[in-house]
Amino acid sequence: MPRRQVTLSLVSATLLACALAGAALVSRADDWQSLSLFGLLFVLAAGSEMLSFELRGLRLSGSFLALVLAMALLGPAPAAVMGVACSVVDAVISRRSIDRTITNLATFAVFPLVGGLTIRALAGDFEVGGSEALWFGAVVLTTFLLANALNFAMVAAGSWFAYDVPPRLMLRSFVTALPSEFATALLTASVAFTYAYLGIGSIALAAVVLFVFLYIVRTSIAADERGEELEQRTRELASLQMGLLSTVLQTLSMRDAMTARHSAAVARYSREVAAMLGLDAREQDLIHTAALLHDIGKFILPDSVLFANRKLTDEEWQLIKLHPEQGAKLVERIEGYGPVAEIVLHHHERFAGGGYPAGIAGEDIPLGARILSVADTYDVMTSRDSYRRPVSSEAALAELRRVAGTQLDPAVVDVFERMILEKGVAFSHTDEVDFEAELAFEKRVADYAQPRLAAA
Fold first, then answer.
1. Residue 388 burial by CB count (10 A; 0-12/13-18/19+): exposed, middle or buried?
2. Molecular function terms in GO for this entry (predicted)?
3. Are 64 and 184 in contact (CB under 8 A)?
4. Which domains are assigned to the chain?
5. Cα dihedral angle (405, 411, 415, 418), rounded to 10 degrees?
6. Per the count of CB atoms within 10 A, which of 115, 173, 437, 441 is most buried?
7. Mean pLDDT, to the nearest integer, of 343-365?
């Protein structure tokens, strides 16, 4: 056993011995007169231990209700004994190690003793039919919260010292559990108040309420944990899928650097246009990603077609026209990438109709695809990597204006022109830094693991 755990065990054993000695000193004969009440509260505490659950490493159960009632209705000594007995039940159920068992025994001996002494000091001995029932209930409520804080402090300190559990994590669990603990504290105070009038019947009613409450909370925690596990697996799957797709794009880059750099340039232009059109950050990312992948379907083309520096035959041209569909089929296999695939599919449609593959027109073409089409056309004309002689930016913009309304969306052309002239956005096809900056897939994995927006 590590030295720190040995030290904690020794300190805990000392605390346990002191608490039991203190309980013996303050024990009074009349504390033990109501053995039936002691037995009922112990059954309630032990049963609650069997329905206990963990929340981020912090173990929660309803035994606190029974222990605080024992502090209030029986006294500090019976409460301490009951706490130790509950800790033994917990050790048997959870099969805890010796060091953790000793620590729990000490904790469950100390806080019931301290709580019982606090109630006795503030409210005196409980009397059935007493006139101070409301004050007594208020004292029980306050003691519940204080004892709960003492219990947490002892557990958190031991976990940090001996097991390196971060205090911040423990505190987060404690804060998360506070609403349910406060509700249990109110229930405990109510039982203490009504016990003066209903006797043991009030405890039986509280037991029913507590067990139902514990069952609901335990079920909710389990559902939340399953949801977190599913979310984590979704992120891992998205990361894997994006990694595979990134590998395909990098492979295409090695095979055809011109197409890869062209895709990166189209991505940069498209994101800027999307931002100027007022689309939100997620939609901008969606369009940027679609632009990076818009020519990935060219992976199917043979080198004789992909690198041809001659006029293509009709058969070869028909093969070229398949790349949007092939790219979309590849992209849509990634969970949640339907909107991206739709943009990839339609980036060669014409605004007046007659494009491919669907021949749709106007606003039937997704906005992302209309943006890509303008950026694609501009970069093909101005890039030195293109198959044709590049033209100046001014000549390319003039050509975009000429085909606006037939091939391209006039509104997008207008925004694109303002982006070039006013914002000076550009892409260097010879700069690897520009290329790698646009390929930064990893930072989008987490975002795209979340539910998708519909395509614009």
1. exposed
2. transferase activity
3. yes
4. 3-231 (1.10.1760.20), 256-448 (1.10.3210.10)
5. 60
6. 115
7. 95
